Backbone:
């Protein structure tokens, strides 16, 4: 009999209980013990769900107060020195200081977890980093599960992945660690201690996650696996090495050679990798088959899964484990909380499976394996049959096709992806029209999403206030945002995005081919969640989505008002997407919908339009050999969305959270007139590539980090701008924050922007002086 398990379960709670408890604690509205109770109840509930579904273990160690990487650092005691915390005495509030910063200390940097929309806190490595043991939370959670008599499997992030994901920093004395792997002996010693302790606590299996194996790994990293796992396998529980997010068949020999007890393979992202492994599978070794998609919400094709699993089961028997492709962290918790409505009707709902439903799929597969179809109990048979019917209906549904969209795709011409003129001509036309000062100041789009705004939207959704009341409340907010920007003296204004719940969900709600949920939350970082909309059919824009809001905002000011849209790649990347057609096709459909919106904005007198693409880099495949194909269609989709306007209309784009330097030629190929990017947290390091590459168009490098409540000083922003001037010509340089301001409050926002505008003014004055001096000479 095969076993069933999950690599991890969402921790946020089906009703975002953890988010609510965290934010209440941070506000000071509740005590630490109340937060701890919520955490404990959530863990218990999630373990019980795993048991009830029929899984063979509960997974312990997937819980984190903020982030699983930070939890690992807290466990090992590898706390960045600059915080001056004693690792073995780290408190929960210290932990939150690491994650969120304080008045005096920058928070740890946050970045994307592989190609997901989840963000982890980046370990900071220096030659002084120690790993001498930290908090006991993992052991306490384990005891908690054991007390409940659950069979347990513990999950840890693997040592090589942990090292790889960190960033090397200078010490206080400015010396730099040469290579993260120089820390390996210390890390391994720490992991050995953890494993020994887990063994003492009676743990039989530890799942050790090494997702870096699905990247293009340099040889020094690959070579570190065998010696590392030789050490780790001594005096330790059994180790299941988990790989996910891609195929690892290039490393099959290496993986075979490791002294481990099992391997998990992602059979969704790496469908064809099995053969490389099963040929000479080591006797006694477990194969955990990641057969249920942990990154998407479609109900599985159980018959097809079974077909793939049968031969494995035949070969491996009880050594076959059945699992989701990766942790279920990336999907919402429970479809059963969704009431059917026009946003998610019964038919579309029957096509879906969230984390809870996926547990059930795993259990079903387990019970069907090795049993004759006729011998299956009637309930299992019924569930297989239901799944089959739903899948069949989805395939044949008329709702997934839209002829208008299909025809427009066919009719696209090359010229549709080109602006009328080259950048030099466009920017001249735009300069003449707008007459902006040197170093124009602007913001990225959103202003604080206050409690009042959210409550008003919630009341509207519940039907407690009518359309007109809601409209007026949002208009009041827009008026307020415009007034504030005028007062601050910003040059290019935005309407503030008050009417949007989220930059992706908002558009999904207005497009055909999309469904959306009430509780389909997925953790993005810390307590912040997103509710990715679900693309099930051809994407079509029945009517304008943003025009009246932008038009209203423009009517309040004589300054340029940027229209604000979310780009095709980001719309795709941050939604749950169809698995029945290529991503590129869906992206192009979205691009066409956006193109119409862009043109309608232009006709309505909106002369600057920003098309955000923060997920452009995130969508890049993990393996370099797949980059070009992605970048080609992604750039094309952006250009289809943006190129339908006249030269005078200024197209902006925005990207954040990214390592841009490896894709600069493609960013340039997007040919936006202005790009605003996140650069402040890296101290403008990210900008250097743009300079070296001679990035041709206008750039606004972010001058302050909007993720922190800290108010940036004029001086520090001036300094960053001077750095920017070294690589970007003055005429091309804009001044703006790193990203949108929706997560900040008003007082912070005003203070920060005031300082930003002052910094820009000081710099302008300096340049004017320089010019006068040059003329005088
Ligand atoms: N999709 C997406 N991905 C992204 C980003 C993004 O903006 N969108 N930004 C980057 C960083 N990620 C972020 C992700 C989430 C949030 C965020 O603020 N999320 C909000 C939820 C936003 C939302 O959907 N809000 C809804 C529903 C809000 C809500 O909870 N309403 C209450 C009632 C209102 C109240 O009393 O507060 C309820 O329903 O009970 C709305 O405004 O309408 C949160 O977790 O708090 C910020 C940044 C990267 N990835
Ligand atoms: C994550 S990128 C955010 C861009 C969006 N226009 C905003 O300001 O919120
Ligand atoms: Zn951003």
Residues:
């Amino acid at each position: 009999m095969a076993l069933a398990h999950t690599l991890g379960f969402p921790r946020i709670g089906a009703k975002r209980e953890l988010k609510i408890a965290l934010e209440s604690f941070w506000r000071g509205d509740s005590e630490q013990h109340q937060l701890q109770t919520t955490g404990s109840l959530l863990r218990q509930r999630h373990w019980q769900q795993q048991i009830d579904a029929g899984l063979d273990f509960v997974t312990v160690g997937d819980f984190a107060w903020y982030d699983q990487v930070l939890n690992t650092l807290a466990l090992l005691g590898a706390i960045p020195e600059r915080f001056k915390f004693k690792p073995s005495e780290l408190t929960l509030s210290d932990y939150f200081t690491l994650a969120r910063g304080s008045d005096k200390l920058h928070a740890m940097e946050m970045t994307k977890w592989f190609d997901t929309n989840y963000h982890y806190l980046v370990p900071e490595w220096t030659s002084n980093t120690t790993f001498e043991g930290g908090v006991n939370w993992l052991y306490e959670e384990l005891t908690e599960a054991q007390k409940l008599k659950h069979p347990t499997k513990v999950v840890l992030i693997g040592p090589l992945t942990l090292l790889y994901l960190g960033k090397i920093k200078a010490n206080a004395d400015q010396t730099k660690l040469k290579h993260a792997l120089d820390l390996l002996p210390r890390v391994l010693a720490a992991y050995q201690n953890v494993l020994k302790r887990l063994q003492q606590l009676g743990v039989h299996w530890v799942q050790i996650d090494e997702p870096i194996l699905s990247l293009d790994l340099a040889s020094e990293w690959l070579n570190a696996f065998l010696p590392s796992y030789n050490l780790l396998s001594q005096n330790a529980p059994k180790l299941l090495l988990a790989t996910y997010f891609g195929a690892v068949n290039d490393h099959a020999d290496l993986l075979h050679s490791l002294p481990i007890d099992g391997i998990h393979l992602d059979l969704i992202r790496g469908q064809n990798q099995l053969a490389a492994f099963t040929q000479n599978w080591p006797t006694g070794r477990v194969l955990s088959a990641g057969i249920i998609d942990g990154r998407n919400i479609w109900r599985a094709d159980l018959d097809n899964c079974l077909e793939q699993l049968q031969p494995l089961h035949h070969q491996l028997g009880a050594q076959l484990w059945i699992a989701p492709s990766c942790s279920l962290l990336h999907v919402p918790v429970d479809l059963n909380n969704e009431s059917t409505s026009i946003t998610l009707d019964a038919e579309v709902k029957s096509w879906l499976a969230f984390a809870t439903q996926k547990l059930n799929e795993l259990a079903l597969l387990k019970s069907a394996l090795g049993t004759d179809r006729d011998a299956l109990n009637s309930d299992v048979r019924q569930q297989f049959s239901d799944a089959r019917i739903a899948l069949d209906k989805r395939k044949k549904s008329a709702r997934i096709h839209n002829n208008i969209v299909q025809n427009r795709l066919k009719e696209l011409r090359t010229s549709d992806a080109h602006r009328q003129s080259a950048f030099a001509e466009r920017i001249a036309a735009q300069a003449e029209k707008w007459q902006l000062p040197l170093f124009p100041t602007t913001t990225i789009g959103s202003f604080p999403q206050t409690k009042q705004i959210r409550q008003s939207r919630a009341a509207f959704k519940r039907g407690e206030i009518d359309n007109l009341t809601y409209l007026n409340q949002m208009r009041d907010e827009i008026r307020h945002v415009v007034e504030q920007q005028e007062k601050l003296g910003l040059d290019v204004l935005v309407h503030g995005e008050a009417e949007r719940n989220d930059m992706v969900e908002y558009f999904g709600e207005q497009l055909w081919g999309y469904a959306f949920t009430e509780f389909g939350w997925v953790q993005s970082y810390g307590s912040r969640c997103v509710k990715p909309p679900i693309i099930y059919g051809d994407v079509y824009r029945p009517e304008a989505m943003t025009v009246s809001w932008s038009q209203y905002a423009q009517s309040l000011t004589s300054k340029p008002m940027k229209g604000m849209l979310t780009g095709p790649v980001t719309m795709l990347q941050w939604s749950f997407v169809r698995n029945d057609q290529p991503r590129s096709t869906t992206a192009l459909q979205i691009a066409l919908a956006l193109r119409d919106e862009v043109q309608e904005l232009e006709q309505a007198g909106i002369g600057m339009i920003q098309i955000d693409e923060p997920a452009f880099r995130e969508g890049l495949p993990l393996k370099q050999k797949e980059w070009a194909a992605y970048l080609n269609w992604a750039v094309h989709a952006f250009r289809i969305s943006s190129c339908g306007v006249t030269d005078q209309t200024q197209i902006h784009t925005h990207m954040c959270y990214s390592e841009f330097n490896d894709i600069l030629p493609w960013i340039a190929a997007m040919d936006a007139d202005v790009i605003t990017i996140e650069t402040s947290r890296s101290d403008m390091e990210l900008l250097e590539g743009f300079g070296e590459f001679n990035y041709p168009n206008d750039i606004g490098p972010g001058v302050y980090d909007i993720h922190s409540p800290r108010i940036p000083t004029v001086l520090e922003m001036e300094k960053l701008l001077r750095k920017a001037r070294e690589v970007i010509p003055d005429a091309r340089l804009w001044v703006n924050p790193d990203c949108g301001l929706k997560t900040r409050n008003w007082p912070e926002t005003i203070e920060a922007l005031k300082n930003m505008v002052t910094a820009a003014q000081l710099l302008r004055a300096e340049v004017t002086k320089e010019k006068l001096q040059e003329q005088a000479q």
About this structure: Residues 444-446, 497, 503, 564, 612, 614, 654, 656, 739-740, 742 surround methionine (ligand 2) (CB under 6 Å).
